[in-house]
């Protein structure tokens, strides 16, 4: 779940001011089946994204992430995860 949140947050950071970003194209990519397959292939049970890419991060020990998914039939799932001090 944490890895899914990391990927979702990375994509969320691409959403900006529509005057400067093509939000429609970004959202179409984010909601495509092929992109979902790609993200699923990136999530591993035995390693984190930082481990795979050797990214250095600062852990402040707290934060909140939220993920919402809406299907074509209108069904929806929302998950929020909070880590506090």
Automatic annotation (TrEMBL):
Q: Name one GO biological process term.
A: glutathione catabolic process
* UniProt KW keywords: Glycoprotein, Hydrolase
Q: Name one GO cellular component term.
A: plasma membrane
- Annotated L-glutamate binding sites: 82-84
Pfam families attached to this UniProt entry: G_glu_transpept
Instruction: Say which domain of life the source belongs to.
Output: Eukaryota
Active site, renumbered: 64
* Alphabetized GO MF terms: glutathione hydrolase activity
Family recorded in the similarity comment: Belongs to the gamma-glutamyltransferase family.
Name this protein carries in UniProt: Glutathione hydrolase 1 proenzyme
Species in which this protein is naturally found = Anabarilius grahami
